[in-house]
Amino acid sequence: MTTILVPYHHDERLPDDSIDVRADVTVRPRFPEAGRWQRLTALCAATADAVAPVVAAGGVPTVLSGDCLVLSGTLAGVQRGGMDPAVVWFDAHGDLHTLETTTSGYLGGLSLRLAMGVHAELFAGPLGLRPVAPERAVLVDARDLDPAEADFLTTPGSVRRIPVDEVDGDAVPDGPLILHVDVDVVDPAELPGLLFPAPGGPSAGAVVAACARLRATGRVVAVNISCTWRPAVTDAERATRAALLADLSGLC
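The structure corresponding to this sequence follows.
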């Protein structure tokens, strides 16, 4: 198992103790003196550079970061490593906005749509990412959707949405898979301190079990984990987070 740490939330460096894992590789991008999109592209390109040789050698990397945008770097790296994966996206939110539909301006809310090629001139194109077709993506949980995201999911041929307990090899596309887990898919009563808590979610155990069912297919080629939480304030929070990351990382 190769653990790749991307200690950033968007293009901002996280405190050293934000993601408590022992990394084999820590991504340290060289940011250009340019705008945010160019900086995000540089971060994801550096992530892809770390992922690609692991995949090409037959390994299954685990990539941990502070937000969901890094998934595109993991995806680009898997593609460079010779795979054409589908994406299984565990998240309390849809991350299906565009620049035209977002009301907050938070770019993390575009993460899945960016991986599917929206605004390609800003991101997928410069990154060298081959966009994932909507039918090659599965959204797991996503209990907190904005109206524009809900509308997008009703369009023919769009992303499929399923609950955590329905996740297995028959519920996802054929071929290689990237398993993406935003930790906020877990109910915030069990995982306090999330940036965007959404009540009514599954337990950590249910999420880990669903991920294990996919891993058992032998088709998972990378795991991408987004640690979308605030700095821990108690030892109990730190212990809960460390246990979750150990369970998710241990799947590889």
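DSSP finds seven helices and ten strands in the chain.
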